[in-house]
Amino acid sequence: MKKIITGDTILFKTTAHDQGGTAIQTAVVTLTVNDFSGSQVLNTTVPHITGGTYYSNESTAGWGFGPITQNWTIEDSAGTLTKLVKNEFKVVSDGTIATTYIYEDELKSYFPSIADYLNSESEDHVLAAYKYTNRVLDGLGYETPVPASDDSLFDQSIRDHNAWDAIYRIVKSDQIDKVRKDEDGKYWFDSFAEAADDVYQDWKSKKIVFKRKVSPGEAGIGLARRTQGSSVGSMLTNHDEVYGSGFRGSDYKRTWSALITGTGTSGGLRECTFVWSKDGGLGTTVGTTSDSWIHLDDQVYIRFTRGTSTGTTNIFVVGDKWEWITNPVRNQTGGKGIAVGYG
Q1: Do 49 and 63 contact (CB within 8 A), yes or no?
Q2: How much is the pTM?
C-alpha cells in the first residue's frame, strides 16, 4: 500500500495497449478516487501524453486520512471498456505511518545467512511482506497499519510475521530456479513461509493478543442490532478489536440506543442527526452521523456506515434505531473473559 502525504501533488499515470502491444492513443481515460468510506474525492478525465501513456498531476489537499482506492477506466471511441486498474494507497499526515514493521538490516537476527541473498530488490520484498501482513490482519478484523505501542515499538508478533514473509520472498526469488523440491514436494525455503503462517495461526486462535489491543467485545461492549427502520445504512459499535479500550462503566448492565431524528438535505452518511441513550430510553443527547468513530461515554464508540448503498443520498431515514448492551467490568486487566454482569 503506497503512502501518500496529505496536501501533496502526486502523479497519477497509466498506460493502454491493445493485445498486440500497440499503444492506444485515442482512448477516453477516466480516473476516480474514493476514500475509505466509499465517497468519491476525485473524478477526472486524464489526457493522453505520449505512447499510450496517460497521466495527470492531482493534489490530495482536503482528502481524509485512511485507505484510498484509485480506479482507472479506459474506453475506446465506442465506449467499450478496454482496461480497468484498481490500486490502493493510504493518505496520511507526515510521519504517522511506518513504511514497514521491520527493516531489511534486522532480518539477519531471524536468518543469519540472509546476507547471501540480499540485492537491490530486497527492500521491495520487505515492503511486499509488510503489505501482506496488513492484508492478513485486515482479514482478522484488525485496523491496519497497526500503530506502535506506547513504548514506540511494534508488537513482536507483527515484526515476526513481516520478517519471516520477507525472508521467504527474498530467498525464493534467488533460489526458485536453482533448487528442486524435496520428497514431500517442498522447497527448503518454504519453512520461512511456514514460520509466518505459524504467527498468523496464533493471531487467528487468539493465542497472541496485541498488547495495545483490548477487545471491547470482551470488555463489555455488545454488537448493535437494528430495532427500527429498514434503510440501507447501518451502525456499528466498537465491539470488535478496532477502537477504544473496552467499556469503562462499573454500575450495572445497560441498554444503549441510537435513533436517527433528522436527515439533513438528503439522508447522507455525514449529515443526519441522531440522539442516543444509555438507560434504555429515547435519549436527548444529539449527535451527527459520521463514518468516523463517535465517543458516547465510558469508551463506548459508534460509527455509521453506508451499508448496501452505492450512492450518497437516502442512506438513513428518520426512525432508524439501533440498540446494544454493555456489561459492567470487574477486575479488568485487559483482554480475556472480563465482561461479567452483576445482575
Answers
A1: no
A2: 0.40
